[in-house]
TrEMBL record:
Entries under SUPFAM superfamilies matching the protein: Glycoside hydrolase/deacetylase
Keyword Signal: yes
The protein's name in its UniProt record: Lipoprotein
Superkingdom assignment: Bacteria
Residues in the signal sequence: 1-22
InterPro entries: CE4, Glyco_hydro/deAcase_b/a-brl
PANTHER family named in the record: CHITIN DEACETYLASE-LIKE 4, PTHR45985
Region Disordered, residue ranges: 402-424
Length: 424
């Protein structure tokens, strides 16, 4: 899964995706959650040090409750909500760039947990590619290729470590087909169900498919772990959401929204990507490295070296502008999506390093996975969430959080009907 091979193969796909609103993943690519105010990890069944119950061929195993995770907290009356920030990665896998292992270290150093959206074909060896039957394509077809033994071993190592550190393993599905001619935007609900089932299967049967009988199991039951995903290029959301609801998923992050509090669509949290102020420009930009890249260097994955520092600073400053707008305003969760890619000399990865270090250690901030955000949202009083959704982008409560979420009406201004009498 050499990075040079992936980037070369990705150039044509980038051209096809450039007009799309959201990013295409052109390649593959321990800690305590949350930051300030987090409670002690919830007590559960013993972790990997205790009993291990192998599942199927032993590719995965039940090892107890996921370690290093606090239980969700219900807001107290008048309490200011935490500022959630979600850093997520499409097509998570470990290749020669070693970005998966790098961001695990960055997360641990900054008391963050993240969501890694695994592409199932990254656990499927090239020799077994025909096991993948993509909707509307020939067997063994994939826009992002498959993997070799070394790439699979390295990716498995990162997945194990990431989960044990409290991170979430979601899905970016398999073949990453975008655009017309069989792209995910044209798939039916049943075709999405097939794609999801295959993504699960490749995770649950990598030991059989690779012949790596002695490699350690993944320490989670993927049928229970997998509760959400992001569609390739943010396409096909309408039918994917229908399939996801039927399969018991808890969230989708394939949409585009403003920086406002999320809501449920049926039984599924809509945790869409967001628009933030585009530093150096008059408009707003989607919070994904791919979209920044397309707006900076077009279809070129390695643009003008003289501009790379400026481009990276724009990404950093744009995400920080969005963060401050929420942190000092409505406290809506900030959703950020990325790819393990060294586009434009790795400038976007360096920008993310700086953003994580800047925001995750601030008071009241919790850098968490989508799973933990969904847990927190589910724990809140629906009336509280309704009030939060009434705040516009960047809008802080006029009389402060204590009054806004006190459960009591704000006092009327002096002199108004119902206000306390003014002494002469």
């Amino acid at each position: 899964m050499a990075a040079t091979q992936r980037i070369a193969a990705g150039v044509a796909l980038a051209a096809a995706c450039a007009a799309a609103l959201a990013g295409c993943a052109l390649g593959t690519t321990g800690s305590k959650e949350g930051a300030h105010g987090a409670k002690k990890a919830a007590v559960g069944a013993p972790g990997p040090q205790g009993a291990v119950h192998l599942i199927g061929d032993g590719s995965t195993a039940y090892t107890g409750a996921q370690p290093h995770l606090p239980g969700p907290e219900k807001l107290k009356r008048g309490q200011k909500p935490p500022q959630f920030v979600v850093f997520s990665w499409d097509g998570a896998g470990e290749d020669s760039q070693k970005l998966f292992s790098h961001f695990r270290k960055v997360a641990k150093a900054n008391r963050a947990t993240m969501t890694y959206f695994l592409s199932g074909v990254y656990l499927l060896p090239e020799a077994k590619r025909d096991l993948y039957r993509p909707p509307e394509h020939l067997p063994g077809t994939s826009e992002i290729g498959f993997n070799d033994d070394e790439g699979i071993k390295n990716t498995l190592r990162q997945l194990r470590g990431a989960w044990l550190e409290g991170n979430e393993i979601g899905t970016h599905f398999n073949g990453h087909f975008c655009g017309p001619g069989g792209g995910v935007g044209e798939w039916s609900v049943e075709e999405w169900k097939s794609e999801i089932a295959q993504a699960k299967s490749f995770v649950k049967s990598w030991r059989t498919n690779t012949g790596m009988k002695s490699a350690p199991s993944l320490p989670f039951d993927y049928d229970k772990e997998l509760i959400g995903g992001r569609t390739p290029c943010l396409e096909g959301q309408k039918n994917f959401v229908k399939a996801a609801r039927q399969l018991g998923f808890r969230y989708d992050t394939s949409g585009v929204d403003n920086q406002v509090w999320p809501k449920k669509q049926g039984n599924l949290w809509d945790l869409s990507m967001q628009l933030v102020p585009f530093a150096g420009h008059s408009g707003e930009q989607l919070t994904t490295d791919y979209n920044f890249r397309v707006n900076q260097s077009g279809t070129q994955t390695q643009g003008d070296p003289a501009k790379r520092k400026t481009w990276g600073n724009q990404v950093r400053d744009s995400l920080l502008k969005g963060f401050r707008r929420a942190y000092n305003g409505n406290r809506a969760p900030l959703i950020i999506g990325n790819h393990f890619e060294s586009w434009n000399g790795g400038t976007y990865m360096r920008a993310l390093d700086q953003v994580i270090e800047n925001v995750c250690n601030k008071p009241g901030v919790r850098c968490v996975s989508f799973r933990r955000l969904a847990d927190w949202l589910d724990a809140q009083d629906p009336a509280t969430l309704d009030k939060l959704r009434g705040l516009n982008v960047g809008e802080a409560p006029k009389r402060g959080w204590a009054s806004f979420l006190s459960g009591r009406p704000a006092p009327a201004p002096k002199g108004a009907p119902g206000a306390p009498a003014v002494k002469p």
